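Chain and conformation:
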Amino acid sequence: MCGEAEFEAGIKLAAVFHQFVGAPVNESNAELLEKAMESCMKLQPYVVEAEVRIDREKLRNAVSSFGYTSLSPEMLYARVCVELEGKKAVAILKWDEDAGYPLMRLV
């Protein structure tokens, strides 16, 4: 059964995913983009921790001849910790190779 903290964690990850997938990225701004995504999650209610990583190897392999690419779901890992009414929920978003899809799950 999903509680309020778990629901909020899912909302935070979905917001990051839908707001930032497609953003222009290369190695020179990947860290800035990670920090921006973390900052946006931390602004939301109940968030006590946020972490975002962009897979640099996948990024390097996707960069076009123009020197950048668009952030894709395959590159993205996000983790959020939410605390609401004394209950904590930790959730991650990461690419699942077997499913070929970005999945969110509670950890």
Remarks:
- Residues 4-106 form a domain with the Pantoate--beta-alanine Ligase; Chain: A,domain 2 fold (CATH 3.30.1300.20).
- The two ends are 14 Å apart (CA to CA).
